[in-house]
Amino acid sequence: VKGSPETSASVLTFSPDRKIVASGSIQKIKLWNINNKELHNLSMLSSPIKNASFSRDGKILAVKYEGHNQATNFESDNLIRLWDVENGQELRGIEGNTGQCLFGWSFDNKILAMGGYGRGNIIKFWDIRQRKELFQLEDDFQPLFNSENIHADDFLSLAFSKDGKRFVSGGANKIIIWDVENRKVLHKIKSEFSFR
Predict the structure, then answer these.
(1) Per-residue pLDDT tens for 161-171?
(2) Which of the residues 37, 79, 89, 123 has an alpha carbon 20 to 30 A from that of 28?
(3) How far is it, in rounded angstroms, from Cα 121 to Cα 142?
């Protein structure tokens, strides 16, 4: 894909089988195959794409974007839009996190976890089929430092264990292992980093 204002990408992600690439720009997100053929041009608002993530089976693409509510003229960036990868059709979206959003898919593709910058220590877990929030995990982890550009208590990475019983969240100065069924913290690992 040649770079231009129309095709330049701020977000790029591969499907799990590495056959499809999702590219997000200021106004839209597109799906391409590895032979540089455009598969779908997914309609979006004129808003920057913040993040995109394929489900583990590659059938659904979750997209976080900065939305604008024309009726109220206020920014509303808490919607996660879901797309059917095969036919390019939009599925019913779910309410996500404000600010930067990270995704973590369960291995059975039934649950989507969301957390990230601007959300502190809260992770939301959504049932993808029913489009409803199942529960939240929140920790009282105290940051070891603060930085002008980094929220030390935010999550930077999320992942499920293969059996779905454990969940791990990582941040600038912490790694937390969670018991998903009992919704509690099992272990906390503290780390100190120096940013210069």
Answers:
(1) 999 999 998 87
(2) 123
(3) 10
Q: What pLDDT sits at residue 119?
A: 52
Mark 74-96 as b/e (b = at least 16 C-beta within 10 Å): eeebebbbbbebeeeeeeeebeb
DSSP state of 61: E
Helix, strand, coil share (%) of the chain residues, nearest 5: 0, 50, 50
105 vs 125, 135, 157, 173, 181, CA distance in Å?
Answer: 10, 15, 12, 23, 16
Structure tokens of 106?
A: 């369960």
Residue given tokens 């990408």 in the structure block: 9
What is the C-alpha to C-alpha distance for residues 44 and 28, in angstroms, rounded to an integer?
A: 5
Distance CA 79, CA 34 (A): 29
Q: Which amino acid is at 73?
A: N
